[in-house]
Write a structure and sequence with these properties.
With about 250 residues, this protein is an all-alpha fold. About 75% of the residues lie in helices and about 0% in strands. Strands 1-2 form a two-stranded antiparallel ribbon. α9 crosses α10.
Length: about 250
Amino acid sequence: MAGTASSVREPGPTEIEMTEPEVSTRLESTDSVLPQARNSVADSSPARPQFDSGGADKRFRLINKIGGSVVTIAGIFLIVLTVTIGLFLLYKGSFTFTAFQHSVGEFLFSPDWEPQDSPDLTLRGSVGALIFILGSLMTCFLGLTIAMPFAVGAAVFITEIAPRAGERLFRPAVELFLGIPSVVYGWVGLTVLVPFIRDCFHAPLGGYSVLAAGIVLAVMIFPTITTVSADAITAVPYDYREAAYGLGSTR
């Protein structure tokens, strides 16, 4: 053990000392090796795909321009189509007053509807639309009278009484009826409501009445009035509510 310990010796201070030229030479070699190593690693790594932002922006602008042009053309087409239909109806309907020589007063105030005019005017009829005008007005008034209280009450319930349950359950259920076509309402009224009125009230016309039309119209306009009323109540500013409460108003 003594021989082994004596054979190991520590380096002297003269052996570990290095001159300045040797240190600078080693540092320069290290600095030259590191960039080469970085370049080799960069060359060996897979190249990242280049994203052409300018090309994407041009494509986006082109697609946006094409979409805007299509929407504009479609809107102009619908406007032209609506105006064309109106002009066609006006042109064809004017024959009643020009070719067949009926007056506007007869059309608005006569209850007789028998359009039996012949082209040579040998056969004369009447085109009084008073019954249809009054029937439409009575149906609208009856429908509004039935639907308005229920619709406004439903809107108050949605916005004031139970806003959470109303917004989550009641309002979506009401808005579902907005997507039902009016033909479906008419078919249900014709097959269900008309026989019910005929059997219940023994109507002389078999249930075909203003009452049936008014009830069907009330069911049709109930979702629209409810939604519009709820939006109008919600849009009232809170300051106005506080001012109303200060004047003695209740909820």
